[in-house]
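hi! just following up on the protien thing from before. the input was this:
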Amino acid sequence: FTLACDQKCRACGPRAGRARSNELTTEEALRLVDDLAELGVGEVDLIGGEAYLRSDVLLVIRAIRMAGMKAAIVTGGLNLTRAKADAMVEAGLQQVSVSIDGMEANHDALRGTPGGWQRAFAALANAKAAGATITGNTQINAINRHDLRELGDRLAAAGIRSWQMFLTIAHGNAADDASLLLQPYDLLEVFADLEVVIADANARRIKI
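and the predicted 3d structure came back as:
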């Protein structure tokens, strides 16, 4: 929806940070919503950059819902205040997925935002209080690979309904930082760890 962003993530695929000059206008975004509905799409997830930085985000969320589709957002949550969450849910937003990449020190280092981990969990709380379903998503890399079980505990306590995990790959900013990348031989241990993490999630009825 935009490449404007309020964080500086070391693994950002689209190298977000500033809005591009050729991003969709509001009129184009609304026309795309209509096109998606006509194609039979069931859910539209707004991503970025940071989708809530666009001034027309409420208008587009409302259009998605009026077209009969589910409206969701994927966010870093750095500045997802209760007021923003309330406004987006009032417009029709149903699900908020907050990106949390490890425990506090590793998350903040990976995202270049001191205090960002605390604010990401505050974003989950704000979205839940506003009435949205909350979920989490996490990149798995050489920095945070050992954080997953403890992070799962924290996310479960926050009340998430599902958790998406994926490997950091050599794409975007991560292509410039080999220290982030897991090697093939690392994956045997990572997958063994994930078996435990997934079992914990299943026991808590959190969808992976």
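The chain has a mean pLDDT of 97.
The helical segments are 26-39, 57-66, 82-91, 104-111, 116-130, 148-158, 187-203.
cheers
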